[in-house]
Design goal:
The chain is of the alpha+beta class and 281 residues long. It contains eight helices and five strands; from the N terminus they run H-H-H-H-E-E-E-H-E-E-H-H-H. A five-stranded mixed beta sheet has the order 1-4-5-2-3, covered by helices on one side.
């Protein structure tokens, strides 16, 4: 019975990892679709991080997650030769580089959205129906203004133009988009702190020093950080951005698995019996 439960647990865990991998392609499709509206002259090399922030960020995080899974669950302590250890650390360092780069991309996107300016003498969207102008539905969704949709998109009398783009949005819509960009920045920054604490845990556990004050500090920090991430996921849920909500929820579940791996690893080093559905290193 315990063996069956253990298999189901592993199946569920790796199913979550597979769904996170699928999100890379979902974000790519979203950002690829939005790119022509945000980059009228095409996506240049310098625009890649701003245009495909979520795709790059998610891909780096998935690889990093798998590295943590290898180090805290799949590989036993005897497998950590110098070559394996340096390979894992090197690959993680590359992932961290892309994650920090993506954090910059979220900040750049937030600053871009806050730079929108009032569109002078525009009080009716239908005057922009010429096949060139679009309306920003949310952060990564734009729709071309047509005679069939212009009146339904917004009845506001004041509109904002996104800097350098033939794209407009009303003030309420812009406020919502800016808040989404702020939550993106908060979420990305919080995840950076989470992995710093997790790296702290793994390094100490490798030397059997994850105990006492260090363990209390780690647990308290993660309580605050995971609570912040949960609030971000709830915000996305209420704002109707299902993809971001679903992605945030999956990441929380995935890192619960990593935390369980570390707990089991620590119990194994202390010779504490494992739970029925958890397999220690």
């Amino acid at each position: 019975m315990n063996t069956d439960r253990g298999r189901l647990f592993k199946l569920f865990k790796y199913g979550v990892y597979a769904l996170l991998t699928a999100n890379i392609f979902i974000f790519f499709v979203e950002e690829w679709t939005a790119a022509p509206h945000r980059f009228a002259d095409g996506v240049g090399f310098g625009d890649i991080i701003e245009g495909f922030t979520a795709t790059i960020d998610t891909a780096a995080w998935v690889i990093l997650l798998l590295m943590f899974e290898l180090e805290t669950y799949v590989l036993d302590d005897k497998s950590f030769t110098n070559r394996v250890t340096w390979s894992l650390h090197g690959l993680r360092a590359i992932c961290y580089g892309f994650i920090v780069y993506s954090f910059y991309g979220y900040i750049a996107t937030m600053l871009f959205m806050t730079s929108a300016s009032p569109f002078a003498d525009l009080s009716d969207l239908c005057t922009l129906v010429d096949g060139q102008w679009s309306y920003a539905i949310d952060l990564d969704e734009y729709t071309v203004l047509t005679g069939a949709n212009c009146a339904a998109l917004s009845t506001a009398g004041i509109f904002m133009q996104l800097s350098g783009l033939t794209a407009v949005v009303d003030q309420a819509g812009l406020a919502d988009i800016i808040w989404l960009t702020r939550v993106d920045v908060i979420n990305a920054g919080t995840w950076l702190l989470v992995v710093l604490v997790l790296e702290f845990d793994v390094r100490l556990q490798e030397h059997d020093r994850l105990k006492g004050g260090a363990l209390k500090f780690s647990n308290f920090s993660k309580y605050v950080l995971y609570s912040t991430l949960l609030l971000a996921a709830i915000y996305w849920g209420f704002k109707g951005d299902f993809v971001d909500f679903w992605d945030a929820f999956l990441w929380l579940v995935a890192f619960v698995f990593i935390e369980l791996n570390v707990v089991d690893w620590r119990k194994a080093s202390l010779n504490v019996p494992q739970g029925p559905i958890q397999t220690a290193k």
